[in-house]
Design goal:
Blueprint: H1 2-24, H2 26-33, E1 39-43, H3 50-66, E2 70-74, H4 81-88, E3 96-101, H5 102-106, H6 108-111, E4 123-138, H7 147-154, E5 159-163, H8 169-181, E6 185-189, H9 193-201, E7 207-211, H10 212-220, E8 225-229, H11 244-247, E9 255-263, H12 268-283, H13 285-293, E10 297-298, H14 303-324
Parallel strand pairs: 1-2, 1-3, 5-6, 5-7
Antiparallel strand pairs: 3-9, 4-7, 4-8, 4-9, 4-10
Helix pairs in contact: 3-12, 3-13
Length: about 325
């Protein structure tokens, strides 16, 4: 009898010790206290572009929700790869996050012969945050006033189009447009969308297929000429601007999106907290209003849904990149 009781007590004691050890493990205690210091949100493009605009809107809401400052840091270059590498090499503790454009995960692996990280294994994907259409616009001095005139001009002379960098959403949207329009144009990459738009304003490049949030203000101010929206419907920000499908290329649609990621190995409990905070931010009236003003729509899908989205779009872009023999190196 004594032996049986002793065995039962010993078993319970061992279970209790195991539970305490589990709770005391670094990853568990780390997850329970997260966040207890500021969080860095790496935006892998220059300030002023759409990823940067979205990052600052998100950071403001996340700061309120988490009770810790979420600080945006711009690490532009190489189509977003430089910023992504910073996050991939950071400690997997939830204090360094990445706001990536969709093209970084779906295009860069096929476009760059050498990458400083493996997008499939070096990052933990959390959620797609938002997405939105793009704007085909031209420099103020280019002698065209609609999309058909742009296409016609491009068939008579070599034009230039700018982007946020090789492999960026802006680059691939430009490639998609020129391919669909049956024209050729010389790609001019920049270290971000903002410097590309600045050169469009000063007529250093001829046209761009830029993200709406970064380009709309310049269009409204008359600094660039907006010709068409890449969504299936017109947008409230520029209601008089037709869609590409209306203006010249039936069926054409090209939208961009942005996702939140962390270093691979980030504890699931922390990832879950980040996901929940992002969802809460996207449900707030303040953020929805800010997104709407910038022509963006909240997404907030699950990590599994995001991974499926990346997989599906990657297959499509791989065909385009190989078919057109596009390379970053």
């Amino acid at each position: 009898m004594f032996k049986k009781e002793f065995t039962t007590v010993l078993r319970h004691a061992l279970i209790s010790i195991g539970a305490l050890a589990y709770l005391a493990s670094p990853s568990i205690t780390q997850a329970q206290s997260w966040p207890d210091k500021p969080v860095k949100l790496i935006v892998p493009f220059a300030a002023g572009g759409t990823t940067d605009i979205l990052g600052r809107i998100l950071a403001q809401q996340m700061t309120t929700i988490l009770g810790q400052n979420v600080i945006v840091e711009n690490k532009g270059g190489a189509g977003g790869n430089i910023g992504a590498e910073v996050v991939a090499n950071a400690p997997p503790n939830g204090y360094t996050l990445l706001l990536a454009s969709g093209s970084m995960m779906t295009v860069n692996p096929y476009l760059y012969k050498k990458l400083p990280l493996n997008y499939a294994t070096d990052l933990t994907y959390i959620t797609a945050v938002a997405g939105g259409p793009m704007l085909v616009s031209v420099s103020p001095n280019l002698p065209v006033n609609n999309l058909k005139e742009l296409i016609a001009l491009a068939k008579t002379k070599e034009l230039t189009f700018g982007s946020a960098g090789i492999g960026s959403q802006v680059h691939m949207a430009g490639e998609n447009f020129t391919y669909s329009a049956g024209i050729s144009a010389t790609h001019v990459p920049y270290k971000g969308e903002a410097p590309a738009i600045n050169d469009l304003v000063s007529s250093q490049i001829d046209f761009m297929v830029g993200n709406l949030p970064a380009a709309a203000g310049f269009a409204k101010a008359g600094k660039i000429k907006p010709l068409a929206i890449t969504s299936s419907k017109r947008v409230t920000q520029l209601p008089d601007v037709p869609t590409v499908a209306e203006a010249a290329i039936p069926g054409f649609v090209n939208v961009g999106w942005y996702a939140l990621a962390a270093p691979a190995g980030t504890p699931k409990a922390i990832v879950d907290k980040i996901y929940a905070a992002t969802q809460k931010a996207l449900e707030s009236d303040a953020m929805r209003k800010s997104l709407d003003i910038n022509g963006l729509t909240p997404i907030a899908n699950t990590p599994k849904e995001l991974e499926a989205q990346i997989k599906n779009e990657s297959a499509s872009w791989e065909k385009v990149i190989k078919g057109r023999n596009i390379s970053a190196q």
